[in-house]
């Protein structure tokens, strides 16, 4: 941080200001991809495989092409050979990747696999034409259950004959520690598929200008600059010939980080048709083909000494990557093992995993893609506490890391610092009134009511500074009116980047916040950035605004000092004015400064530039900004119906100083609700043949206001290592909520001898476990189903 930046007062950062986006969005004046209309625009619709695995023997588009309004039908032979390069920056060009053809070649590999692309004058005609494309399929055996895929007779990709996409092992388990420990707890935890399901599905408008060989795209994306670079690589054209415009995006949650196969098809086809080409995904397509998430199966165990101190932790798991995974979540699978020790004092840790292909939709990124490590660890801790006759709060209290232990390296080498997990944990316990709840729970049980309490603690990396994620740019310009525009790469998908960037810029320059606006998401005018992913936006945009703001602030002060005949050191900026600190009567407005700079530059002294604009790049010197939180959930379970009612929900989180507490709490709430959905409702089910059984919202259930209690917030503010001490907050809610809910259910059902470790905790699953436990008790069995 520069000395001039260090002296900047914060007037707006930390304030609960209304979102600047809200007026536009709430009055229906947002611009989403489907709002984009271009002259002569055509519409695209995909022909998708109805089989999980089938040989494509022939595609006859004769009838479809005869339909009035149909302009073209493309198959793999038309589009796939035009691919030049198809690597993503998140992985890099030298990292081996799995197959990802734009259209299915020879064989369809999941239900929903795109096998042809229809282009027509309207979406309605295109959808009608899809039904007329005659595809001769030869159905083949499929493997839909990834737990049975390794070395199956069915091979998803010939290049991977054992169906194992990859894997990694850390240090081997210390079996001597496990065999000699006073207590060892183990569990088998299965997490179902659930998906990001953004309110706005995927969409793209691509317009090719043949004369200039330029491509313009309007996209629903989290990473406009990476989409631009990917398109240039894919088509083999200079990147300066590609422009991506991202206006408003209705949610991404990781699904829109990297371009997927359908996006590739639209880019390739755009050069072959007249006019712009629009593709808007419908909800059924989104659920069938936009990518699955989570879906992990594994065994976890922990060894404890006689006092309940953790001695060792081990996780062995496999993750389903479907047929065509995107690279991001496959790479983050390793994080499940690396982060498994969590925010606890764990002397020894080990992990082993495989990523496995199946004939289902490919794995896509989803908010906290390594969440399984928190899910399994926190469930295991609660089971261990009950087995040792200890309250789960006490077990965590004995093992959770304190601030005075930082820096701390977990046994897998992850360097924790600038965090105090014990602080968020104790704050959550206090807000809950733990002892009061235990009394209420005991009294309720005597009345035949089953109340439960679940905790979940985690530590997460935010703003990880690796590869292209390590840098971010910003341009700040004072316009001739004295008002200010800040240009950032964008990717805002509901996470309020517009608001926080405006707050940061107003502080950086001493401007009134009403005088600051932001422009994002247009690659023609914004600096390169990696977009919204990995909870990076807060710390990285703060760094970029700080760098550019410091340059522009220095220029404003120099101009003001000349006009006011004062020393630069005596100039202060506030309220969109420059004032002489020792003589407040002497001041000049930003509007006056800008007027002189743009319209009367001759009044400036020789050698002083008339520039009121600065572009700068911030490169993070901190590898990771660690955030952490504790979630606490209480519930009541109806043991007759299996219905779960959440009664309280508390989140204590440390994301450093908050740029805008409303935004932070909104991010926590959004993630928390998604995690609650994953615990109780959401389940993307396939039958044994690979047919999706939940491709509409009738079958794929999402949480609503009736399932979610009011969320109570606690904040611990430990500054991170970067500019302003800010840490990211985008993914934590979704990481911590699922295990907290499952632990609350298991706590409620503990008197019945029930422990649920196969998600989701649906009513039928809960009733089945209760009935099974009852039958075992009646037959004298003492084991628990896990």
Automatic annotation (TrEMBL):
Any idea which UniProt keywords this protein has? Answer: Molybdenum, Oxidoreductase
The family database entries (SUPFAM superfamilies) matched by this protein are listed as:
CO dehydrogenase molybdoprotein N-domain-like, Molybdenum cofactor-binding domain
Give GO MF terms, alphabetically. Answer: iron ion binding; oxidoreductase activity
Residues annotated as domain Aldehyde oxidase/xanthine dehydrogenase a/b hammerhead: 27-141
Please name the InterPro entries in this protein's record.
Ald_Oxase/Xan_DH_a/b, Ald_Oxase/Xan_DH_a/b_sf, Ald_Oxase/xanthine_DH-like, AldOxase/xan_DH_MoCoBD1, AldOxase/xan_DH_MoCoBD2, AldOxase/xan_DH_Mopterin-bd_sf
Q: Which SMART domains match?
A: Ald_Xan_dh_C
Q: Which PANTHER family match?
A: ALDEHYDE OXIDASE 1-RELATED (PTHR11908:SF132), XANTHINE DEHYDROGENASE (PTHR11908)
Q: What is this protein called?
A: Xanthine dehydrogenase
- Protein species of origin: Mycolicibacterium agri (Mycobacterium agri)
């Amino acid at each position: 941080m520069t000395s001039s930046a260090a002296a900047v007062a914060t007037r707006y950062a930390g304030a609960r200001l209304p979102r600047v986006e809200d007026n536009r969005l709430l009055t229906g004046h947002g611009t989403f991809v489907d709002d984009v209309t271009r002259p002569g625009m055509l519409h695209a619709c995909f022909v998708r495989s109805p089989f999980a695995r089938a040989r494509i023997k022939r595609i006859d588009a004769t009838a479809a092409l005869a339909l009035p309004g149909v302009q073209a039908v493309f198959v793999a032979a038309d589009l796939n050979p035009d691919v030049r390069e198809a690597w993503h920056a998140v992985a890099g060009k030298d990292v081996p990747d799995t197959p990802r053809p734009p259209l299915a070649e020879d064989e369809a590999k999941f239900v929903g696999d795109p096998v042809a692309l229809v282009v027509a004058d309207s979406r309605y005609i295109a959808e009608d034409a899809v039904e007329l494309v005659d595809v001769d399929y030869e159905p083949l055996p499929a493997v839909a259950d990834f737990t049975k895929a390794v070395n199956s007779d069915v091979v998803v990709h010939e290049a991977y004959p054992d169906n194992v996409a990859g894997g990694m092992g850390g240090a081997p388990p210390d079996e001597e520690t496990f065999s000699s420990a006073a207590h060892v707890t183990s569990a088998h935890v299965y997490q179902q598929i659930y998906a990001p399901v953004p309110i706005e599905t995927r969409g793209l408008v691509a317009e090719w200008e043949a004369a200039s060989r330029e491509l313009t795209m309007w996209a629903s994306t989290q990473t406009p600059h990476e989409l631009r670079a990917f398109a240039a690589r894919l088509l083999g054209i200079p990147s300066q010939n590609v422009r991506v415009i991202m206006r408003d995006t209705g949610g991404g949650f990781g699904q829109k980080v990297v371009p997927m196969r359908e996006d590739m098809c639209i880019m390739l086809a755009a050069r072959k048709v007249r006019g712009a080409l629009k593709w808007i995904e419908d909800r059924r397509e989104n659920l069938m083909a936009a990518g699955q998430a989570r879906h992990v199966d594994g065994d976890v165990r922990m060894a404890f000494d006689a006092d309940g101190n953790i001695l060792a932790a081990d996780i062995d798991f496999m993750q389903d990557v479907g047929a065509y995974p995107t690279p991001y979540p496959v790479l983050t699978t390793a994080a499940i093992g690396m982060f498994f020790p969590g925010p606890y004092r764990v002397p020894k840790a080990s992990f082993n995993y495989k990523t496995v292909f199946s004939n289902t939709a490919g794995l896509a990124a989803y908010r906290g893609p390594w969440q399984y490590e928190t899910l399994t660890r926190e469930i295991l801790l609660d089971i261990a506490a009950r087995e040792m006759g200890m309250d789960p709060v006490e077990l965590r209290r004995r093992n959770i890391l304190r601030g005075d232990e930082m820096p701390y390296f977990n046994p897998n080498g992850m360097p924790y610092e600038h965090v105090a997990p014990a602080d968020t944990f104790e704050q959550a316990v206090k807000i809950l009134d733990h002892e009061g709840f235990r009394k209420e729970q005991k009294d309720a049980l005597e009345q035949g009511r089953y109340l439960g309490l679940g905790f979940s603690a985690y530590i997460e990396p935010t703003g990880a500074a690796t590869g292209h994620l390590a840098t971010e740019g910003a341009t700040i310009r004072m316009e001739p009116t004295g008002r200010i525009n800040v240009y950032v790469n964008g990717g805002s998908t509901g996470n309020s980047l517009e608001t926080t960037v405006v707050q940061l810029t107003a502080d950086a320059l001493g401007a009134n916040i009403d005088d600051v606006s932001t422009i994002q998401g247009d690659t023609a005018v914004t600096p390169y950035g990696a977009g919204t992913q990995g909870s990076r936006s807060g710390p990285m945009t703060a760094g970029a605004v700080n760098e550019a703001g410091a340059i522009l602030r220095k220029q404003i002060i120099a101009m003001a000092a000349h006009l006011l005949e004062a020393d630069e050191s005596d100039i202060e900026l506030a309220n969109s004015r420059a004032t002489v600190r020792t003589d407040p009567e002497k001041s000049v407005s930003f509007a006056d400064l800008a007027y002189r700079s743009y319209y009367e530059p001759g009044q400036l002294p020789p050698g002083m530039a008339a520039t009121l604009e600065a572009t700068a790049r911030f490169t993070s010197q901190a590898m990771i900004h660690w955030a952490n939180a504790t979630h606490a959930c209480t519930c009541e379970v109806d043991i007759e119906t299996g219905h779960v009612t959440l009664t309280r929900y508390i989140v204590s989180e440390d994301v450093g100083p908050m740029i805008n507490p409303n935004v932070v709490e909104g991010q926590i709430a959004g993630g928390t609700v998604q995690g609650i959905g994953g615990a109780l409702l959401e389940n993307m089910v396939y039958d044994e043949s690979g047919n999706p059984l939940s491709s509409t919202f009738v079958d794929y259930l999402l949480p609503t206001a009736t399932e979610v209690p009011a969320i109570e917030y606690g904040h611990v503010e430990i500054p991170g290592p970067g500019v302003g001490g800010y840490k990211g907050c985008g993914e934590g809610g979704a990481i911590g909520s699922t295990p907290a809910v499952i632990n609350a259910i298991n706590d409620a059902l503990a008197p019945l001898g029930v422990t649920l470790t196969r998600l989701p905790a649906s009513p039928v699953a809960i009733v089945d476990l209760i009935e099974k436990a009852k039958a075992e008790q009646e037959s004298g069995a003492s084991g628990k189903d896990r």
